[in-house]
Amino acid sequence: MPNNTLEARQGHCMGVSLQCFFLILILSLFLPLANAAHAQAPQPFTRQLVVDKALQLSQSPFIPSQKKVPDSLLKLDYDAWRDIRYIPEKALWRQEELPFQLQFFHPGMFYDQLVNINIVDNGVTTPLPFDTSAFDYGSNHTLPEQIPSDFGFAGFRVHGPINTPSYFDEIAVFLGASYFRAVAKGQVYGISARGLAIDTALPKGEEFPTFREFWIEKPARNSASLTIHALLDSQSLTGAYTFVIRGGKTTTMDVTSTLFLRVPVQKIGIGPLTSMFLFGENTSPRELDDFRPEVHDSDGLLIKNESGEWFWRPLTNPKALEVNIFKSDNVKGFGLLQRDHDFANYQDLEARSEKRPSLWVEPHGKWGRGHVELVSIPSEQEIHDNIVAYWVPEDTLALKTPQTYEYTLRWYAGRFTHPPLGYVLATRTGAAEGGGRRYIIDFSGKALSILTPPANVEGVITCGEGASVVEQHLEKNRYTGGWRLSFVVRSDKEPSAIERVLPTRQAPIDLRVFLRLDETTLTETWNYAYQP
């Protein structure tokens, strides 16, 4: 009996040992797979993930993206690239009837940088794979066969019901380097914004950073905004960006940017805006032979200083590169505006310049000492953006110290952003009889429309050294309801006989004008450069 019990126990132990053996064998086979699955499991997403990526990236030398676009795509001309279209029915979130949809751009032509796109759903981020079946390649029948398996996108566009509740129009586009643009209700694309401007208009050349990866948060069914995060990278620095987009009569983007320097940078432009000005009502004489009275996406730079002064600079298309600096410590706002919304002043049924948006940058908090910089580049074609504006901090950013800037971008039509009383409606100029130049400035605004002669309204004109104002006349403009100021500026220096034959370009002379009633300032300050 004992022997039988011992044998039974031994048999039982052997059975247990065999079970343990098989259990250990199974675990040894599946634990590595479980650990690998755990390592590759989607990680919870917060903005800090992008900040950490930017910080880590900044601690090593810049490495261009290793993913390449096939030459067959880069050699496409504009029409061929435009023939590759994203299929609207494949738009992300279209079937879920969410308040926003996403469509994507195919790499090709000069869009040679591939960007990674991730979708954040319930706090978890998942990469969005490139899919050739989501594109209609048109006449480019052989291209899908040449797309690598690990391909990426060139950019994307955001759609939403900003014009009608039932139709999703484009609201914003992120495409090319760190460029992006948006529209409000009833508008067409015009001015663009950028993530950052680096060494713009310096002799050593400009550096163009790139958004190399995006994280787009899936909106709730009743959400009025779409949140997009982006990782910026360039030779000199990295950055983590967050955009909260709301489309409507005014489309807004709340922007948070955190920057990390790799190496010292000579000049950084915060909130950079890029637009086009070919000619306008202030272009005289006009050298381009064109049927249209005006061609521009923006017609002036507006700045609101810390003191509350509003400052307006009409745009020009110069003969040589011009860089204008406007001191703006703790700037309250700046923007490139399209104030003229009258079709009769453009006569372009295709471009619809009167529907182009203005773009206003509104800082959050105090940005410190610095200036707004306006760069004007000579141009003979409207396809080139030749106007750039941004804010430059006085102190250079420190290495190994993150710097965060927060601001709101407002894309709008009409006159959303104006001084409270009066603003410049139009600027015209031409040769004056007897020499010099005549300037005609029309001021408008509700307060000005109420004032009628004999109200003690006067024009205050400041002219820099080297020139004088020789005529001045202010009158009510019955056609606009505002006031018109006319004056002539002449150089104090008589040209020599040689200069009459071979005129030389002299330094421009600063002009400033505003209207006041007794001691009350009625308008923004108009600023221009008189060229003797």
TrEMBL record:
Its annotated compartments are: Periplasm
Query: Its principal location?
Result: periplasm
Source superkingdom: Bacteria
**Which SUPFAM superfamilies would you find in this protein's record?**
E set domains (SSF81296), Galactose mutarotase-like (SSF74650)
All copies of the Glucan biosynthesis periplasmic MdoG C-terminal domain together span: 45-530
This protein's UniProt keywords:
Periplasm, Signal
**Which PANTHER family does this one have?**
GLUCANS BIOSYNTHESIS PROTEIN (PTHR30504), GLUCANS BIOSYNTHESIS PROTEIN G (PTHR30504:SF4)
What name does UniProt use for this protein?
Glucans biosynthesis protein G
From which source organism is this entry?
Pseudodesulfovibrio piezophilus (strain DSM 21447 / JCM 15486 / C1TLV30) (Desulfovibrio piezophilus)
